[in-house]
C-alpha cells in the first residue's frame, strides 16, 4: 500500500514537471503586418511548420486557452487536443488554483501592428458583467481585460488622456475641435485651472470628449478634411509636430474617422524594445505600430469608438472612462538576474519575464506555484525540467509549463531570446517571505558584483 502511494506521488511529481510544446493559433486581422515583415508570421510559421503568405496580414499569435484562438498539444495523435481540454482533464498542472475554474487566468500573444488598432477601452469586472448580460452577442464574457504590452521592436500607442494644460494648448492650435464641440464647450476647458477640483476637471474633459465622439458623420468628415488640408498647407512653412504627423498618418489609414481628431486628446507613447505599458480597466488606448508581446486576462471584451470599421459603442465608451489625465507609467522591468527582467503590472492575473541569454549560458526559472507559458523568439537551446537530456527548443516554439516546475534553460550556438508569462507572483501572498529572502540575496549579490559565468537563480548565486 505504502509502495503504491509512493509510486503514485512519484508519478504525480513527474507529471507536475511537465513542459509541453504547443501549436498556436494565428489571427490575420487586416491591421497586421504583411507576412514578409511580420514576427507573428515568422513565429507562427515555425510553430506550425507551415509556410506563410508574404502578402497576407499577420496580426496576432495567441498562446493560451481562449476559444477564439485555441492552442493545441503538439502531439503526434491524429485528433488535435486543445490545451484547454487537456488542462481541464489535468487540473493539478494549475497548482494553487486560487483564481478558480479549470483554466488559465491569462492569455499570451505576439502582435505585429501594421496600422492603428481601434481606439478602445476594456470594462472593469462590474461593467463587463452588466454588458455581457445586456448584449451577450457583443460582449462575450463577463470578465475584465487588463492588458500589458511589452515592446519587441520600437512600439507606438495612444494611451490615456493628456493633461488639461496640454489640452488647452491643443484647443488653441487645432480649430477643428472647436468646430465639432462648439465654442461654448471649448471655452469650458479653457476656463479651467489647476485650482479646480479633480472632479471638475474630469467632468469638463468627459463633456467635451463625449461631444467630440458623438458628432455626426458628415461633420466629422468635414472637420477631418479641413484638418488635413490645413496641415498640408502649414507643412510648407513649418515643421509639423509629432502629433500632427501622426494624425495625418491616421487619416490615411482611416479617412473621415473621428479617431483622427480624438488622437489629439490622448498621450502618444513611444516604447523602446524591453519597455512595457499596462492598460487598466476603462482607460482609452490604441496601438499604432510596431511589434510586442502582450498578456491579458482571458477575455475578449472591447468597447470601440474610433479608428475602426467595426461596431462603435460611443455612449458606453464615453461613460465608462476614468478620465484620468497625464502620461501613463512605462515599466522597464525588475532585473531578476543578468539575463531576466520581470514586468509586474498592478493586476493579479499575470506577469511577463523577458530573457536574453548569451551564447552558451544557463539560467534557471525556479518553480512557481502557478502555470507558465514560454515563447522562444530567437535562437536555439535546451529546456530542462530535471531529466538528463532536456528538450531542444528553437525560434517559434511555445511551451506550457505546469505549476511547481523548475526549468533550466541553456542557449547553444547563438544567443537565445525568450519570454515567459505566468500568474502574477503577487497573487501568491504566502510566498512573501521567500520573495523578501530573494530580494535580500539579490542585493547581496549586486553588492558583491555579478559573476557572469555563474548560473543564476533569480539573483541567488549557487552556494550563496
Ligand atoms: Zn486593448
TrEMBL record:
This is mannose-6-phosphate isomerase. PANTHER family: MANNOSE-6-PHOSPHATE ISOMERASE. The keyword Zinc applies. It comes from Crotalaria pallida (Smooth rattlebox). One of its GO terms (biological process) is carbohydrate metabolic process. It comes from the Eukaryota. Its cofactor is Zn(2+). The keyword Ribonucleoprotein does not apply. Pathway: Nucleotide-sugar biosynthesis; GDP-alpha-D-mannose biosynthesis; alpha-D-mannose 1-phosphate from D-fructose 6-phosphate: step 1/2. Residues 19-161 form the Phosphomannose isomerase type I catalytic domain. Binds 1 zinc ion per subunit. One of its GO terms (molecular function) is mannose-6-phosphate isomerase activity. It catalyses: D-mannose 6-phosphate = D-fructose 6-phosphate. Zn(2+) binds at residues 120, 122, 147, 285. One of its GO terms (cellular component) is cytosol. Belongs to the mannose-6-phosphate isomerase type 1 family. Keywords: Isomerase, Metal-binding, Zinc. The active site is at 304. Residues 184-266 form the Phosphomannose isomerase type I helical insertion domain. Its EC number is 5.3.1.8.
Amino acid at each position: 500500500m505504502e509502495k503504491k502511494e509512493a509510486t503514485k506521488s512519484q508519478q504525480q511529481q513527474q507529471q507536475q514537471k511537465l513542459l509541453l510544446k504547443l501549436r498556436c493559433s494565428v489571427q490575420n486581422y487586416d491591421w497586421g503586418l504583411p507576412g514578409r515583415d511580420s514576427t507573428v508570421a515568422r513565429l507562427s510559421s515555425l510553430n506550425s511548420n507551415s509556410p506563410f503568405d508574404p502578402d497576407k496580414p499577420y496580426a496576432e499569435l495567441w498562446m493560451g486557452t481562449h476559444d477564439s484562438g485555441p492552442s493545441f498539444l503538439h502531439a503526434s495523435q491524429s485528433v488535435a487536443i486543445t490545451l484547454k481540454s487537456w488542462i481541464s482533464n489535468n487540473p493539478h498542472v494549475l497548482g494553487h488554483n486560487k483564481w478558480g475554474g479549470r483554466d488559465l487566468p491569462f492569455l499570451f500573444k505576439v502582435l505585429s501592428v501594421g496600422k492603428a488598432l481601434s481606439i478602445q477601452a476594456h470594462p472593469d469586472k462590474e461593467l463587463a458583467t452588466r454588458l455581457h448580460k445586456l448584449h451577450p452577442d457583443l460582449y462575450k464574457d463577463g470578465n475584465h481585460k487588463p492588458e500589458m504590452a511589452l515592446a519587441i521592436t520600437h512600439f507606438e500607442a495612444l494611451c490615456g488622456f493628456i493633461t488639461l494644460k496640454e489640452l488647452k494648448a491643443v484647443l488653441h492650435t487645432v480649430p477643428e475641435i472647436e468646430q465639432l464641440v462648439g465654442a461654448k464647450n471649448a471655452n469650458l476647458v479653457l476656463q479651467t485651472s489647476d485650482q479646480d477640483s479633480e472632479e471638475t476637471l474630469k467632468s469638463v474633459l468627459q463633456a467635451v470628449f463625449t461631444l467630440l465622439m458623438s458628432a455626426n458623420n458628415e461633420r466629422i468628415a468635414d472637420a477631418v478634411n479641413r484638418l488635413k488640408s490645413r496641415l498640408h498647407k502649414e507643412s510648407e512653412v513649418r515643421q509639423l509636430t509629432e502629433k500632427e504627423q501622426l494624425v495625418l498618418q491616421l487619416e490615411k489609414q482611416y479617412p473621415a474617422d473621428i479617431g483622427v481628431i480624438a488622437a489629439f486628446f490622448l498621450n502618444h507613447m513611444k516604447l523602446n524594445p524591453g519597455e512595457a505599458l499596462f492598460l487598466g480597466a476603462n482607460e482609452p488606448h490604441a496601438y499604432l505600430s510596431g511589434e510586442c508581446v502582450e498578456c491579458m486576462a482571458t477575455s475578449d471584451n472591447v468597447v470601440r469608438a474610433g479608428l475602426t470599421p467595426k461596431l462603435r459603442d460611443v455612449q458606453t465608451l464615453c461613460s465608462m472612462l476614468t478620465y484620468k489625465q497625464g502620461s501613463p507609467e512605462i515599466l522597464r522591468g525588475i532585473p531578476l538576474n543578468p539575463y531576466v527582467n520581470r514586468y509586474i503590472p498592478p493586476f493579479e492575473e499575470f506577469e511577463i519575464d523577458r530573457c536574453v541569454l548569451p551564447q552558451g549560458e544557463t539560467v534557471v526559472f525556479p518553480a512557481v506555484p502557478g502555470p507558465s507559458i514560454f515563447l522562444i523568439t530567437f535562437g536555439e537551446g535546451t529546456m530542462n525540467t530535471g531529466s538528463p537530456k532536456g528538450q531542444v527548443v528553437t525560434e517559434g516554439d511555445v511551451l506550457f509549463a505546469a505549476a511547481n516546475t523548475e526549468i533550466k534553460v541553456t542557449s547553444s550556438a547563438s544567443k537565445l531570446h525568450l519570454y515567459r508569462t505566468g500568474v502574477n507572483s503577487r497573487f501568491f501572498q504566502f510566498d512573501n517571505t521567500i520573495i523578501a529572502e530573494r530580494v535580500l540575496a539579490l542585493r547581496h549579490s549586486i553588492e558583491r558584483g555579478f559573476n557572469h559565468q555563474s548560473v543564476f537563480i533569480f539573483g541567488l548565486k549557487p552556494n550563496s
